[in-house]
Amino acid sequence: MIRPILFLALAVLPLSALSSSFAGTTAGSAAGASSHSSSSSSGDDKVVLDARDDAAAFVASEGAIRGAWLEAALLHLRERDAAAREASDMALARKILAL
User: Fold this and answer.
1) In angstroms, rounded to a whole number, what is the distance separating the alpha carbons of residues 28 and 83?
2) Which of 36, 47, 57, 81 is the most exposed place for a label (fewest CB within 10 A)?
3) Is the pTM of this model over 0.70?
4) Can you tell me the distance from the alpha carbon of 56 to that of 99, in angstroms, rounded to the nearest whole number?
């Protein structure tokens, strides 16, 4: 009984890693296509996409929880986009979650 469960677990784990990797590259492409910045690249999008968990915590806590990934993404967005310089941290965090 244990052997089939172990086999199934070992077979499914690599597939889940592959699918999350694929989703990350797909989301990165979509974010780059909708960006108003002409200097955006997949490496830049990764900074923003990596901040999604921190952005969710920030929004859910009404700004009380500020993670390092979110701080990096906010800085990155404001360096690249004039409209982002005028936006609040909360507005940018919500934008990150919408990606």
Assistant:
1) 21
2) 36
3) no
4) 12
- How far is the C-alpha of 40 from the C-alpha of 17, rounded, in Å? 26
- Flag whether 47 is in a domain: yes
C-beta of residue 72 within 8 angstroms of C-beta of residue 64 = no
Which amino acid does the sequence have at 13? L
Q: Is residue 61 part of a domain?
A: yes
Amino acid found at 44: D
In angstroms, the CA 1 to CA 74 distance is: 50
> pLDDT digit string (tens) for 64-82?
999 999 999 999 999 999 9
Work out how many domains the chain is built from and give that number: 1
Q: How far is CA 1 from CA 5, 9, 12, 13, in A?
A: 7, 13, 17, 19
Distance of CA 48 to the CA centre of its chain: 5
Q: Give the structural domain span for 66.
A: 41-99
